[in-house]
Design goal:
By secondary structure, this protein is of the alpha+beta class. The protein folds into three domains: 122 residues; 43 residues, SH3 type barrels; 89 residues, Alpha-Beta Plaits (2-Layer Sandwich). It is 58% helix and 18% strand. It has ten helices and eight strands. A five-stranded antiparallel beta sheet has the order 4-3-2-1-5. The protein has a three-stranded antiparallel beta sheet with strand order 6-8-7, with helices on one face. The protein is elongated, with a radius of gyration of 28 Å. The termini are far apart.
Length: 297
Amino acid sequence: MNQLKSSIRLRENTRRRNFAIKLVLLIVLEIFYAVDTVLTPFLDQNEILQHVLRALIFLLSANVIFALGRFITLNIYLRQREESKVQPNFVVGIDRIETLLNVIAVLISLMLAFGIRPLEFLTSITIVAAAIALLTKDYITNIVNGLIMMFSDQLEIGDKIQIGRHVGFIRDITLINLVLKNDSGEIILIPNLMALSTDVVNFSKNNTHQVIFDSEISSKNEVHLDQLEDQLIEVLEKYPETVFKEGAQLNVIERKAETLLIRYQFPIKTGEKPIEIQVKKEVNQALINWIHELRKA
């Protein structure tokens, strides 16, 4: 069994213990609420305590039902999927759905605790609810898009992707944002709406990803990009098993009054992090040397 599947089953064992505790507590509360006990006369005289007890029963009942649905869904998923095809996205997705449903259950429980009937309350504030829905439209769209990504195999946690000008590894998919971490360790939050409405390049799907270098050079002197490209190719030729030099590109992506912004990029095998770090150092050094020679000239 692979590490991901083992960790999922380990966490589920802890959740099952919590589920059992909640189920026992629910049964105890149901007995106090529905069966005649020594506390029944006291409950009959205290209406507030009745509301609180009913709210706790509803909250625990909802939590137990949601947890049971989660256990069944995840168990079916793990049995049907092969070891190599278990996706952390799916687990994250059902966790987010369970959390969202539990939040709704908490809100309804608070209404019950204060003696408010949820259906009557929602009917009485129809106009306010419509205004709230309109104001939270973007949040709802982000939530829906986030769930789509969680249950899709196009983007997975751990993939290296590019969205617009941002390149990084997917560290988490929340109901609002796609969380990326770039090579310099910075955390980038991409709204889910943007992630599904913008061109996304997934470098991990073909077992390669692009390494990109941007550099700004002076345009006052004569610039020979062919010479720079030859020097950079010499660096890549040292790593024929990891770097695909045939896909290397050197382009001018922006021209300013006194400078040029150039970009050098090439594909490299995913998972070869130590070699990737070494290649980056050598390419950076070659760029620095070339710019230094250009300034001297």
